[in-house]
Specification:
Layout: E1 2-6, E2 12-17, H1 18-26, E3 30-32, E4 37-41, E5 46-50, E6 52-55, H2 70-76, E7 91-92, E8 95-96, E9 102-106, E10 121-125, H3 126-132, H4 164-170
The protein binds zinc ion (ZN).
Residues 81, 83-84, 86, 124-125, 128 line the site of zinc ion (ZN).
Length: 172
């Protein structure tokens, strides 16, 4: 179980283990930023640790990009096709869409020099990907429903399930 750490500006900074959260709390560096809390049993008492903590003092941190991976792109896009918007579990021809019905699309096709980057890749359903083929979206008469971006925080590697109390800060 982990805790989301926010900067004083409410920007997410990182996902930290409970022990580090306690240490920040004991040193008076943070305030609670969520109602939800975790419990940790100590020698004599149980400590409550808010699921989201906010630093009292703003820290200037150079932003490190989240590591690109196929799986991370699917998670960023929440298994939603960037062209037609069909989602995991939606029905298509009477059948529910499964994870395997989604493919990784390169906006600028690989064959034309497109790279594995956050901005050039997105989740697409198999039929949209097939229809797009080796073309750019506009050449295929298709539109991106959103602009693929670098995820704001590298929470993807920390946990595949994002607690509700984090969502307001992570814009997911
Ligand atoms: Zn589609």
């Amino acid at each position: 179980m982990t805790v989301l750490l926010l900067n004083a500006s409410y920007e997410p900074l990182s996902v930290i283990p409970k022990r580090r959260a306690i240490s920040l709390m004991l040193r008076g560096r943070v305030d609670a930023a969520s109602e939800e809390s975790l419990h940790m049993r100590g020698a004599s008492s149980t400590v409550q640790i808010p699921r989201v903590l906010r630093l009292r003092k703003y820290v200037n941190v150079p932003r490190r990009g989240a590591r690109w991976s196929r799986r991370a792109v699917f998670q960023r896009d929440n298994y939603t096709c960037i062209y037609c918007g069909i989602m995991l579990g939606d029905l298509k021809k009477g059948k529910a869409m499964t994870r395997t019905a989604f493919t990784l699309d390169h906006i600028l096709p690989k064959s034309r020099g497109g790279r594995n980057t956050w901005g050039n890749t997105a989740c697409a359903c198999a039929s949209c990907n097939q229809r797009k083929d080796n073309k750019l979206p506009n050449e295929a008469g298709m539109k991106l429903l959103w602009e693929p971006k670098i995820p704001r925080v590298n929470y993807l590697i920390a946990s595949s399930e994002v607690p509700d109390s984090w969502k307001v800060y992570l814009e997911v």
